[in-house]
Structures are given as structure tokens and as C-alpha cells.
Amino acid sequence: MRRRFRLTSSSDFERVRRYGKSYAHPFIVLITLPNEMDQPRIAIAAGRSIGKAVHRNKAKRLLREIMRPLIHQLASGWDIIFLARKPMTSASFSEIRSAVEMLLQQAKLLEEKS
Q1: Which of 80, 85, 86, 105 gets the highest tally of CB atoms within 10 A of its CB?
Q2: Pairing state of beta strands 78-84 and 41-46?
């Protein structure tokens, strides 16, 4: 994911966690908060509850790969955080992708392709 689409500052990350609206799925938690920019910014996190570093890194790589083609369909002006959950480690790529798309639609962040 390109740097301009990343939510990098820890203060921004904390602001979204504290004041954002969350949407839950057994695999992923999505937290969103409007920003004043003309593009979405995304952060992906996987805590120690996922497992050792190998499993956490794999979960983050999967989420980044799923978001890569969707980034241009996202509504602009949003900060988005994806938090991986433990069941994600045993799910298939297509199951995770459908969960991400479902959460983004639920949050009304996906724009129709033009």
C-alpha cells in the first residue's frame, strides 16, 4: 500500500481508536473516523492475541493485499483501521476478502465502480 494511503502517526491511530465507529466480524474489526483529507488513510494492526510474529505478519500481509485493489473504490475523507482477530489465521483468502468487503459496505465506505 502506498505511503500516502497509510495512517502512520500514533496520535492519529489513537484518535481513530478512541472516537471512531467500529464494525465487527469474527475475522476483523473495522474502525472508521472522518478526516479532512481528500483521500482515505488505512492502518492495519494485528495484536499478540493472533499468535506469534509469523502469524501476525501473515494476517497483516493478507489484509494489505486485499485492500490493494479496493483502495481506489473507497470513499475519500476517512481514516480506517483494520484489526485482525484470532479466527483470521485459519480462514481462507476468499473468506477474509468477503469479510473485508462486507464490513466496508456496512460502513458505507465502498463507492461504486464508474
Answers
A1: 80
A2: parallel
Q: Tens place of pLDDT for every residue, the chain, 114 residues? A: 677 788 888 999 999 999 999 999 999 999 999 998 888 999 999 999 999 999 999 999 999 999 999 998 999 999 999 999 999 999 999 999 999 999 999 999 988 764
First to last CA, the chain: 22
User: From CA 108, how far away is CA 114, in angstroms rounded?
Assistant: 17
Which has the closest alpha carbon to 30: 87, 108, 83?
83
Question: What's the whole-model pTM score?
Answer: 0.90
The three cell numbers locating residue 43: 492502518
DSSP structure class, residue 48: G
Are 30 and 82 within 8 A, CB to CB?
A: yes
Cell of 103: 464490513
Q: Are the C-beta atoms of 7 and 13 separated by less than 8 Å? A: yes
